[in-house]
Here is the input.
Amino acid sequence: MAMKKKPVTGMKDITPREMEIRDYVIRMIKDTYGTFGFSSIETPCVEHIENLSSKQGGENEKLIFKILKRGEKLKIDTAETEMDLVDGGLRYDLTVPLSRYYANNANNLPSPFKALQMGNVWRADRPQRGRYRQFMQCDIDILGEPTILAEIELILATSTLVGKLDFENFTIRINDRRILKAMAACSGFPEESYDTVFIILDKMDKIGKEGVAEELEKEGFAKESIDKYLSLFDEVTEDINGVRRLKELLEGFLDQKIAEELETIIQSVDTVKTAKFQIVFDPTLVRGMSYYTGPIFEISIDGFGGSVGGGGRYDEMIGKFTGQKTCACGFSIGFERIVMLLLERDYQVPSNAGKKAYLIEKNMPGDKLAAIFKEAAEERKNGNIVSVNMMKKNKKFQKEQMTAEGYTEFKEFFCDGIK
Amino acid sequence: MAMKKKPVTGMKDITPREMEIRDYVIRMIKDTYGTFGFSSIETPCVEHIENLSSKQGGENEKLIFKILKRGEKLKIDTAETEMDLVDGGLRYDLTVPLSRYYANNANNLPSPFKALQMGNVWRADRPQRGRYRQFMQCDIDILGEPTILAEIELILATSTLVGKLDFENFTIRINDRRILKAMAACSGFPEESYDTVFIILDKMDKIGKEGVAEELEKEGFAKESIDKYLSLFDEVTEDINGVRRLKELLEGFLDQKIAEELETIIQSVDTVKTAKFQIVFDPTLVRGMSYYTGPIFEISIDGFGGSVGGGGRYDEMIGKFTGQKTCACGFSIGFERIVMLLLERDYQVPSNAGKKAYLIEKNMPGDKLAAIFKEAAEERKNGNIVSVNMMKKNKKFQKEQMTAEGYTEFKEFFCDGIK
Here is the structure.
């Protein structure tokens, strides 16, 4: 009976080498976020199909792996649509499950609730290099904290983590959805076209200011709005002074407190940071998801295109799901990207453990074998890795193989004594 | 838009308290098995439906969560059976995926290959108290090691782990499928009825020797076979002497080497053990799965009915899957049971970290806030847990709540200075 040897399309077997990195990153995440008081939670990988199809998931709802009803509930004869056949699906993110979890358990949870979630999610995306249909997400969220304490904690926790993973020279960019809107309002764009404007603005780093101007013109926006808009960006530097300047420029369009709070976030992170990174004010930062309501942020590592994490405040979303308004702020770290970067750098997980191999000659008498295992146990107790193996005929090849696995010491045991 | 708040039937949300235990057990498993040279691997949670339906999974194959085909491949109109509708399923154990993994990656894996797998599996079982449809399995397997080094390493690794988790007075029972068969043969039972005999023998601890005799009689077995069979058990003690005696009694029916190897396994484990446990020879140990071919073992914790893990040698199974004969031996630990036991004992995870809460008065100026976060960062750097929170109006209640969460120190920050 032949078995299909490859994993299902778009998913992968994980090698021992990659697992070593993954386990290390998971441990650093749990440890680091733990010191900030985040508590781990977990939800089932399977969710009600209704919860996954509530329109909060956007495009991801088209990518759900759906689960067939079982037993008498499955009626193939009369089924007309997919929804007649299924009752569950694999989660496509951790936000829908978090909302459900919070609605289900709020009475037993502290307020504010600082949650750490790590778990696989599934999306039936077109398979492509480096992107898989099963991947790990890692989110921290603070639910029920309306003040910028949430933003500061999230950014500090994430930057501390990235620093501990030996990344240097990374950048956290921060903006606020309300500043984005005020800049558009102040320039005279009509409110209903903000999203169009932001989608174009989001390309600034790729197409430059001229490109943005061109595309805005193509959309038919007024020349003076475009000029005014772009001039605002000219006036603003990527630091606290930029925030202060914008506060003046946007007077009448922006609640002054919003700029002051953004200033405090930047200032706090700058004061505390120990890792080598910078936090910059980036008025062109948009972040795709329309559910953000306040500060938004993104983290990127210099020399690696694209972000390795992002988040922001989303005070309206959980209420839409659960019917109970709950302010919320979250930061999601790109677990798979970080693992990939560490693998590419051939990252060596810090370890004090020696890696020793015992090679045992055939037909070792029972009492001598027991003594060998006792010796191994002592070494293991001291934190060393000991692999006890039969000595192969081609011992040279065996040692080469084990050396490739990272074993650095070999001890050979013969029936008539140790060599 | 109302959301379903409960998890899907038979699956559960995991609380921060349970996660603390789970994370700790996972860490102990990775650390302990790591010192024995086991490498972690992972496979996708979704498997080809064909691989899951290959008849190796027994009853579990009836409990598969099946995944609907997607896009053009799904043809609801012409579908007649479930298999027309699905192309994947959630894995119901880690053994099928391990076989596929080994077939897919054998060229890049060392030989022998010592694998550690931890991961969720899914079974659409009838929901019942304490049993869930998603649960974690934790298996160690040694592939490609034909000698008892595999058995000894697996038993030592598992008993070391259970000892580290602060369980005392546990018991490892060991037997060998070939001894089971030799005892049946020596008593004169016909070979085709061995499985029937073993199913009855397996009840010895519940119905006693008289019960076993009765049931064997009911099945119509010869009186002298039954008498002979039960007399064998009378002769045998639960230690190495028992194995030696049985070796004599079964001469002509049992390869003497099998008994000697079993003796060496017991002797080695006994010599090495540091935790408080016993390893006993149990000739009534059967283990359900018919795929075992050699030594079998089970671990149970005194005072807790039922086993918390088990395993054995299964030299034929991987070959049936992959077409390439591969000897194999594994030990599976009952992760969910162990977590449940620790929770019931209100187990406190060992930790040196202080748990401190900072309470901050409203409207703290930005520079003072930054200084508070800097102080928190110093404490976190030293391994302490610090949660920075806004001070609530009902501060007494807030502190009570946080005390319940395990916070033992509170520091209050007011706009005009620290209290």
Observations:
- Chain A has two domains: 16-344, 355-418.
